[in-house]
Specification:
Blueprint (H helix, E strand, L loop, with lengths): L1 H26 L2 E6 L5 E6 L5 E6 L4 E6 L4 E7 L6 E6 L6 E6 L3 E6 L4 E7 L4 E6 L5 E6 L3 E6 L4 E7 L4 E6 L5 E6 L3 E6 L5 E6 L5 E6 L5 E6 L4 E5 L5 E5 L8 E4 L5 E5 L4 E6 L5 E6 L4 E6 L6 E5 L13 E7 L3
Antiparallel strand pairs: 1-28, 2-3, 3-4, 4-5, 6-7, 7-8, 8-9, 10-11, 11-12, 12-13, 14-15, 15-16, 16-17, 18-19, 19-20, 20-21, 22-23, 23-24, 24-25, 26-27, 27-28
Family: Belongs to the THOC3 family.
InterPro entries: Tex1/THOC3 (IPR040132), WD40/YVTN_repeat-like_dom_sf (IPR015943), WD40_PAC1 (IPR020472), WD40_repeat_CS (IPR019775), WD40_repeat_dom_sf (IPR036322), WD40_rpt (IPR001680)
Protein name: THO complex subunit 3
Length: 332
């Protein structure tokens, strides 16, 4: 009897929270757009303090924006990569440090205070993904040939390389930085220990290609997005699937948890970005878009979602718009 009552109380609280969030986004649905690149934007990400937003593009550049109360302002553009900037990530507690992975076979570190590149590490392939460990000590970079390079960020030296014999799509660390996760073309999540890189678990997460992976800020959960158009939510300790989000109809390319771990944004080739409540899976809001979405990233302190789509120029439909957008500003 008591268990049933507790379940009812929890369900009522969750429903109340969903209603609260739904109402919030009805008055916070304004979108700000920045057109700063000459080609499509592949990756966006916020600094750990939320003051800066970075975008990496096929045009080989990285743009840095500052966040005001109701707008973005472009601060600087980093140039130096000889190929597309496919993914970027910030240091988890040094808000001025940004890392980028490029098709030019390098990984770079940029310092927004000095506005310079402070490290340039050559790797053995065209890089497509990057992940900075939460403890700040290691940067993992993956390339098109499914080789992952582990760089000691304290001395900027390559510490290890791991060649995989399957398609590696996206990489991530757990909250304690002692296990390393990667998604693959067989729908699996491989979990390795770090630094010894021993295989600990293989989870068959999806029937289709497992494309993206993201940990929530608390470390309790991680989510995966797949070619089967599903997002699945996993308990990070038990490694069991808790629920799926099934509102999208195309392969899920990108996902992001909000700062409090309560919301999960997911995007694909659908003309909408889906925002769901983590505990129930219920829809809280959606963002209409005009093209496939490459990347989404929640702000680390507010309900602001940065994203970039395959938008085309208004006057020349053959040209990329090179824009990024932020959803969630007050519309009142």
């Amino acid at each position: 009897m008591l268990c049933g009552q507790l379940c009812q109380i929890n369900m009522a609280a969750s429903n109340s929270r969903v209603d609260e969030l739904t109402s919030y986004f009805k008055t916070h649905n304004k979108i700000k757009e920045q057109q700063s690149h000459s080609a499509k934007v592949h990756s966006v990400g916020w600094s750990c303090d939320g003051r800066l937003l970075a975008s990496g593009s096929f045009d080989k550049c990285v743009c840095i924006f500052s966040l005001g109360t109701d707008r973005l302002k472009q601060e600087t553009t980093f140039r130096g990569h000889g190929g597309s900037v496919d993914q970027l990530c910030w240091h988890s507690f040094h808000p001025e440090l940004l890392s980028t992975a490029s098709g030019d076979k390098t990984m770079r570190i940029w310092d927004t205070r000095s506005q310079k590149c402070t490290a340039n590490i050559a790797t053995r392939g065209e890089n497509i993904n990057i992940s900075w460990s939460p403890d700040g000590n290691t940067i993992a970079v993956g390339n098109k040939e499914d080789l992952v390079t582990f760089i000691d960020a304290r001395v900027m030296k390559i510490r290890a390389e791991e060649q995989f014999n399957f398609e590696v799509n996206e990489i991530s660390w757990n909250k304690d930085s002692d296990t390393f996760y990667l998604t693959n073309g067989q729908g699996c999540v491989h979990i390795l220990s770090y630094p010894d890189l021993e295989l600990l678990h293989v989870i068959k997460a999806h029937p289709g290609t497992c494309i993206c992976i993201e940990f929530d800020p608390t470390g309790r959960y991680f989510a995966t997005g797949s070619a089967d158009a599903l997002v699945s939510l996993w308990d990070a300790d038990e490694l069991c699937c808790l629920r799926t989000f099934s509102r999208l109809e195309w392969p899920v390319r990108t996902i992001s948890f909000s700062h409090d771990g309560q919301l999960l944004a997911a995007a694909s080739e659908d003309l909408v970005i889906d925002i769901g409540e983590v505990e129930t899976g219920e829809k809280v809001a959606d963002i209409p878009v005009e093209a496939a979405t490459f990347t989404v990233a929640w702000h680390p302190k507010q309900y602001l979602l940065a994203y970039a789509c395959d938008d085309k120029d208004t006057y020349d439909r053959k040209r990329d718009a090179g824009s990024l957008k932020v959803f969630g500003f007050s519309s009142e």
